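Q: Can I see a sequence and its folded structure?
A: Here is a first one.
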Amino acid sequence: MNESYWFLNSSPKEYNKLGENIKTDCLIVGGGITGLTTAYLLAKEGKKVVLVEADKIGYGTSGRNTGKVTCQHDIFYSKIEKKYGLDKAKSYYNANNEALNLVEQIIEENNIKCDFKRETSFVFTEKEDTIKDIKDEYRTCKKIGINCEYHETIENIPLDIKGAISFTNQGQFNPKKYIDGLAKAAVNLGLKIYENTPVVDLEKGKICRVKTREDNIIEAENVIISSHSPWYDGLNFYFAKEYAERAYLMVAVLENKLADGMFISIDDPSITFRQYNDGSENLLIFGGGDHKVGQGGTEKEIFDDLEHYGKEVFKVKDFKGKWSAQDNMSFDNVPYIGYINKREDNIYVATGFSKWGITNGTAAGIIIKDLIINNNSDYKDTFNPSRLGSYFSKDFIKENANVAINYVSGKLKIGSGDMPKNNGEGKIVNIDGKRYGVYKDDNGDFYIVDTTCTHLGCELNFNSEEKTWDCPCHGSRFDYKGNILEGPALKPLKLYGHGDNDVNPKLL
């Protein structure tokens, strides 16, 4: 897997993995911005908090983004107004604006050196036929009371912009430095962090019992699932109410300074970019080529296209890094934050941030803290995971039809009769009348895995750039050895000779 620029240029503290049974007031599963913010706020309230992370703190999407801390989320506000009304759109803004201000407050109170600064954020189009969408968004934003402006074009940007909206006084930072500082601040308040501690099961009850991969048990009065994709579903069918996308980012030296600000287009294909100074060089962070997990073109082609775009449009030359990230997309543009279902009031979920997890994830921390401490939140209804609007939409029907198509087509795949010839190559191969995924590593060794996804049984596709097996149905991802990289799957892939995969979704 390609490492993010933020990770390559950080020196994070390492935390031990859990090695014993423990008890706590609040257990948080997932060590990104959502989990750490929730932990920080609960610890400030005097709660005993434990956080477990399957990998390293911030290793997921929280450490793999552009570092935009903004309430401007594409053209969400007009869509939310159309579906739920202006009050809900305003509530969504208020939650994210409170989150933006909280990020700045946490940075100031804890002296976190993460290159935070206030900056203007722009959303734009280069196409005549989408100017109307920009203008509709602007009208909704003005009705909400957002400090924004409409622009016919943007100066000092090498694009033919037809229309744009700017939000003033937004923010940007180095996300990994922020995460590391936030983790330190939360630990100083009493938080216990355990890295390399994947969760494999949950037994619900007044006191929940959560089991780790090493068979340790964590007993907790409250469980917060902030692991990006809910590995425990609570019969709320999160896997059907959202879909997973891969996003691609690159960093290069920028020789010609652009207009100040953060930028994202609403066009297809979309482009996002901003400048970042690391103290010695002015860099361009840019990305695009988003696609559903397991359903896009080859990742090499996407990065090649991005590199060509950077050279042609922004005249960049010296590339410093490239990486991808995963986003869970809700069908109505609003995340699912709150009680995991209508019946269980001590299990909480935060997912479906639709690429805007820095502010939405921070807002999730505010909401969940309020629900635990006060049994209420100003934003409870807006982000309610059980809202009916998340089901009744054309997108819900379309995406789940797409899942069905990929499920069936995967089962009809015919594997090759030949093993991979080149090092770094992966393919579906027929062995003894059964399909297996075969990868040949750089040493010429073969890794053969059962490619039936352990979540709901879809057939996996090979990701040639990151050398992973990706699920086109619900976004689970596995490395070539079969280890889980992304949920909702809870079980790894079995190697050849070790039997069939254990398809076991945690729905109840």
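Q: Show me another, different protein.
A: A second, unrelated one:
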Amino acid sequence: MRWPRLERDQLASSLTSFSDEARIALDTIAGRATGLLSPSLRLGVTGLSRAGKTVFITALVHNLIHGGRLPLFEAQKSGRIARAFLEHQPDDAVPRFQYEDHVAALVDERVWPDSTRAISELRLTIEYESASGWGRMFSAGRLSVDIVDYPGEWLLDLPLLGKSFADFSREAFELAALPVRADLAQEWRGLSAGIDAQADADEMTARRLADSFSAYLMACKHDERALSTLPPGRFLMPGDMEGSPALTFAPLPHIGEGHARPGSLQAMMERRYEAYKTHVIKPFFREHVARLDRQIVLIDALQALNAGPGAMADLERAVTEILACFRPGRGNLLTDLFSRRIGRILIAATKADHLHHESHDRLQAIVRRLAERAIARANFTGAEVDVVAMAAVRATREGTVKQGRETLPVIIGTPLAGERIGDETFDGNTETAIFPGDLPEKAEVVFKDFKAGHEASGADPAIRFVRFRPPKLERTAEGVALSLPHIRLDRALQFLIGDRLA
């Protein structure tokens, strides 16, 4: 299915105003001028909760700095990278990605680092030799990669810019009525049903509604159902805005597109919703998303597969909306001077190490099927888009076990404490061989049980996955830890930045 052109254009135009575009153009011109002397590339890293954004960035930087095994990363393979090192980031107002803390968590403590809760940034500079004589003559031999880490939940807010409060309210109640969400939304829907939107505005009523709506969104996020489409994103990750009026609103039932009565509860909610768009969403898009050159979207498809077809439907919806908000494509010399476009987008199915390699192609096919529909609807013209199954940090190794006359392919690792398979609960210290099962040969099978995202399956999924601790790294005689092991991190690097190091 392809979005009508008018609808796509309306979405694109709704993200920014004329003044926003002017500011983006000025920022771009300044960046291009600086880039003449010091070439740089802005790489956006996003994904929904627990998809592995922090781990990906940490592993990428660690492998480049420590010369990890990256056979598919051509510049590293051919020995053209002299060194890679961290520099001070150019944006002083953006928190630094705490790379050192995350490495310590992975290597020393063998725990997964804290999840992304806000925007952060890191500048990695690569000194290299161009592969061509012409390039060596004119290239600076130096590329700074500004890695921007931001929650996918915030990206899902961008479509709200093109929606009125009435649209937002109607869609929120429609989603809450789906079988996979209905029980989680029961309390909020019950509270909302007794609300008169035209009654006088009352701060305590607004607060009760906002708290109940936020609790419903948090339940969807943390529940085993692995739901993904949960705007507004700041309700899940409020940061320094917690308790502000811009976050104290909620959808209201049965309201039309007409003007609300001045002083009414609906008027208050509409005003705060518009404030959220103006003061939260638009600056986020203008200052961060609109400045990206490359983008990777991390997807934890295994979590959705665990949860069933309802979660897969919701994930497809979320991926569609995320991809629709980027500015993909290639411009010309003139347009590139004033605006940035995302030239390459990589969609990565994470945690491939939770499966035997025989299933990696199937995992990739599932995510490609999920993403292809999103790409078609978002009409990505001019941008290069690829899909890969990867593990930024490989937590398992492979083996085989005999079961009767059968030889089963297994993965071997240390499950996190509290993880369960059947009646067995793991202690977090014991290494275990696990047969995770096989993904279906045809990707369409995992989508067949829902119709347009409205059906949820009550049956247990055929395959269950467990989470593993980070691997125990070997050390050299000098006590230096070797680079973090991975699956296809090198392929991801080659796609995202390989052309800039040619």
